[in-house]
Amino acid sequence: MSLINDCVFCRIIRSELPSTRLYEDDLVLAFLDIAPFNPGHCLVIPKQHHHSITTLPTEYQGRIMSVASKLGAAVVRSLEADAFNLLLNNGTCAGQEVPHVHLHVIPRFRDDRPIFNPAKQQYKDQAHMQETAAKIRAKLGE
Ligand code: 5GP
Ligand code: ZN
Questions:
Q1: How many Å lie between the centroid of ligand 2 and the Cα of residue 98?
Q2: N or C: which end of the chain has fewer CB within 10 A?
Q3: CA distance 26 to 115
Q4: DSSP codes joined into one string, 67-116
Q5: Does residue 42 carry a pLDDT above 60?
Q6: How much is the average pLDDT of 51-56?
Q7: What is d(CA 75, CA 12) in angstroms, rounded to the nearest whole number?
Q8: Does domain 8-140 have CATH number 3.40.50.1980?
Q9: Which of the residues 51, 100, 102, 104 is marked catalytic?
């Protein structure tokens, strides 16, 4: 973790790069995504550089979520959207391209194209499901 970083979102925070700002407070900044899934798609970012949500201090975690919730309500009311997605890609294999935590707020409309691949897997059996849950529980407290 570093407070000074050359990543694209740190440069937006410092106004070294342009952005269309929507909201700012002591902990977070929200602005329009430059390549939106739908118009109004915005990003909420902490004003501290962290690649992963897991190292982000809890006050920032809480604030990005509460601001995203308000932005979601605002995009629905202002753009006559029907719903919104909150999405956080954490890690390259999860689709994270910018290495600075960001929560997407994506306005959604009836008959929108799907945002996720709907193909889902199934557990082999009950034991596989229970083993998976036990592994996760064992690491939760660490
Ligand atoms: P990720 O795939 O990392 O979850 O999403 C990164 C998002 O950041 C993408 O939706 C992309 O369009 C957006 N983005 C990347 N660079 C810039 C930029 O310079 N300005 C803005 N406003 N959005 C950006
Ligand atoms: Zn950064």
A1: 8
A2: C
A3: 31
A4: HHHHHHHHHHHHHT-SEEEEE---SGGGT--SSS--EEEEEE-TTPPPSS
A5: yes
A6: 98
A7: 22
A8: no
A9: 102
- Given a cut of 90, whether residue 116 has pLDDT beyond it is no
* pLDDT given for residue 1 in this prediction: 46
The alpha carbons of the chain give a radius of gyration, in whole angstroms, of: 17
pLDDT tens for 78-105 read 999 999 999 999 999 999 999 999 999 9
Q: Residue 46 burial (CB < 10 Å; 0-12/13-18/19+)?
A: buried
What pLDDT, on a 0 to 100 scale, did the predictor assign at position 30?
98
Cα 35 to Cα 133: distance, rounded to the nearest angstrom: 37
Q: Of all residues in the chain, what percent carry a pLDDT higher than 70? A: 97
Pocket of ligand 1 (CB under 6 A): 8, 17, 19, 31-35, 89, 95-98
Atom 20 (ligand 1) nearest CA: 34
Run of H or E including 133: helix 126-140
Residue type, 97: E
Phi, psi dihedrals of residue 127, rounded to the nearest 5°: -60, -40
Please check the confidence at residue 141 and state whether its pLDDT lies above 90.
no
